[in-house]
Amino acid sequence: CISKKYGQGCASDCGSCSGLKSCHYITGFCSDGCQPGYATVYCNTTFPILNAAPEILSVFSKNMTVKVRLHNFRGQGEPKYYQLQYKVEFARMWMKSTKMLVTIEDITVVHLLNLEPLTNYRVRVVLFDME
After folding, report:
1. Residues 6+ apart with CB under 8 A from 93
2. Domain interval for residue 109
3. 122 pLDDT more than 70
4. pLDDT for the residue numbered 131
5. Which is more confident, 77 or 15?
6. 56 & 119 share domain
């Protein structure tokens, strides 16, 4: 099969394999895993991800308020939970809030407390379609 094709008559397209590599020419498996945001051994399923980054509404010396549009997402699966994650700008580890249930409201406001003053933070939201 030519690159990015597999199966009988090489008629099937490979998924989004890691490193932009091709999948196995018979099975379609991605042996080195998937590109970020893709799942299954075929790398053809996308996780639910937000279409827009969280919006910072206010920042004070030790806390910030963040707005998230939880129903503005793409990918497969219906998000049931979300988790706000944040870290000091160049830190490696993300601090995680508890998983919260996605409600019927589209806009959710979250308060981050006890932050370090005069410090830049990165904020993201992770969606979960199962526990």
Report:
1. 87
2. 49-128
3. yes
4. 63
5. 15
6. yes
